[in-house]
Structures are given as C-alpha cells and as structure tokens.
Design goal:
Helix content: 25-40%
Number of strands: 6
Shape: globular
Number of helices: 3
Distance between the termini: 42 Å
Radius of gyration: 14 Å
C-alpha cells in the first residue's frame, strides 16, 4: 500500500504500518486476520483527533488515519470489495447507514428475504 495522505513521522502512521506489515494480499484485498472473529481493536492511546472511543474496528482506524479524517460514531466505513477483513485504504469509503443499506440491497447481500 503506497502512502497518499499520511505523514510517515506521525505515530498513527507507525500504528498503521504495524497493521499493514501483519496483513497479506489476497487478490487486490489487503487482509488482516486477528485472533478474534472480528478485527476489533483496542487503542491504549486512542488518536483523539480521530476518535473519542478507546476501541474500534480496524478498517475504521485505517480509514481515519490514512485519509486524515475524524470519524463520528454515526459514520460508516464501507468496503467496496465487500471483504470485511480487508484494510486496503483503496477499498474503503466513507458512507452513511442509509448508503450502506442501499449498497447491501443493490448487491443482494445480508439477510435473505422471505
């Protein structure tokens, strides 16, 4: 993953680099597999410029730091690749609950109806 919008001397970038180093490419996706079912991370020293919480999903952390974008609790980070463990910044986009639901419906993902 090439850097675009981040400062390599930033401590958050160093955190990102550690996650990227542990991830592997599967096709065009950069997959991070944690020991747990989900990629939920606990931040000992949360980057307060991005989050007000001490834990978050890894893809939210990647998006916030990579694009230098503070996230509200209501912001949704969508995977354009539909791979929940992908942390490639190129596959992440900012959305809303409504746009995420519309994307799910359009792609016929999620709970089956009927």
């Amino acid at each position: 993953v090439s850097k675009q919008c981040i400062n390599p001397s930033d401590s958050n970038y160093k955190r990102l680099a550690k996650f990227f180093a542990k991830a592997t490419y599967k096709g065009e996706c950069l997959e991070y597999r944690s020991n747990k079912f989900t990629n939920y991370i606990h931040l000992k020293n949360p980057p307060t410029e991005y989050f007000t919480v001490k834990s978050t999903f890894l893809h939210r952390f990647v998006y916030a730091v990579w694009y230098d974008t503070p996230l509200k609790n209501t912001d949704v980070i969508m995977h354009t690749c539909d791979n929940r463990i992908c942390i490639s910044p190129r596959h992440l986009q900012l959305g809303t609950i409504q746009s995420n639901n519309a994307d799910r419906t359009r792609k016929q993902r999620g709970k089956k109806q009927g």
